[in-house]
Amino acid sequence: MPAGPGGASAPPTLTVAVLTLNEAHRIEACLQSAAFADQLLVVDSGSTDDTVALAQRLGAEVHSYPDWQGFAVQRNRLLAHARGDYIFFLDADEVMTPAFAQELQAIVRSGAQAVWTIRWRMVAYGHELKHFRSQSQIERLFVRAMVREFTGVVHEQAELLPPPGGGAVPRRLIEARLLHYSRTTVRGSLEKLTQYAMLGAAKRAAAGKKGGVVRGLASGTSMFLRLYVFRLGFLCGGAGFLYCLFVALEAFFRYAALEYDHQQLSESVRR
């Protein structure tokens, strides 16, 4: 970490980095929960609503890049503007609880060299899915100097430099969970269905996988059973059912699109 006045070691600093596109309806809650960061950084992908103005009003440093080239490119732009010793990637539909913020700040103060994953507390259609067993663990906190770049056609991943002294980069877990407002309305879920299904189809097209209705039915049915039954979505009422159903529909349409939109997907991957 950098030296402070008189050669003393300065406290490590934190950048909280957010990607946005037309997030005016929820960007305030997101950024307010991260107001403690040394640098609150937003890269906007060409919003036509008040996202940029709201973010600036909340003290965020905003850079606009409307030439969408994928999530990896946008995250690399966040990296280019980040000044903190640590960088935490926060999505616009996420909110840090006080417990999460405290744990994050403690990690930064410790100066530890690692990558940290997060887990979610899911919120859907105005209800927290308290009984839902969310098992997703996603890398979000990095030592800035250890991140070379993000790569990937669809789902980006960080390419890391080895820590001082060599060896593998340690992986650790942030114990407090991040609030994830995954889906707020049925209409919004229907609008996102196409986006998520096509992103998943493009990923599979890049990997040379095959699609089809039967594969889609198998994938969608398996996904619904896994979420609704084994991860206890059935204990979360109507909101839990809708959440599981939409994720299952995305799984089905990924394989349907992979079969019937194969040419368009191949062209998008080549670009």
TrEMBL record:
<dbReference type="InterPro" id="IPR029044">
    <property type="entry name" value="Nucleotide-diphossugar_trans"/>
</dbReference>
<protein>
    <submittedName>
        <fullName>Glycosyltransferase family 2 protein</fullName>
    </submittedName>
</protein>
<comment type="similarity">
    <text>Belongs to the glycosyltransferase 2 family. WaaE/KdtX subfamily.</text>
</comment>
<keyword id="KW-0812">Transmembrane</keyword>
<dbReference type="Pfam" id="PF00535">
    <property type="entry name" value="Glycos_transf_2"/>
</dbReference>
<keyword id="KW-0472">Membrane</keyword>
<feature type="transmembrane region" description="Helical">
    <location>
        <begin position="228"/>
        <end position="249"/>
    </location>
</feature>
<keyword id="KW-1133">Transmembrane helix</keyword>
<feature type="domain" description="Glycosyltransferase 2-like">
    <location>
        <begin position="15"/>
        <end position="120"/>
    </location>
</feature>
<dbReference type="InterPro" id="IPR001173">
    <property type="entry name" value="Glyco_trans_2-like"/>
</dbReference>
